[in-house]
Amino acid sequence: MRATVRTFALAVSLSGVVATGLACVPDKSQPADFLKAPKSWQPKSDAMTLSTTSLERFNGMSISEQEAFVEGLKAQVGGFRGQARFQRVVQLGPQTADAQLGAYEAYATVDEPVLYEITIDYRLFSSEHIGRGLPTGTYVSFSGTVVDLAFHNEAKPRKLELKVKDVTLERLED
Question: Are 169 and 104 in contact (CB under 8 A)?
Answer without folding.
Answer: no
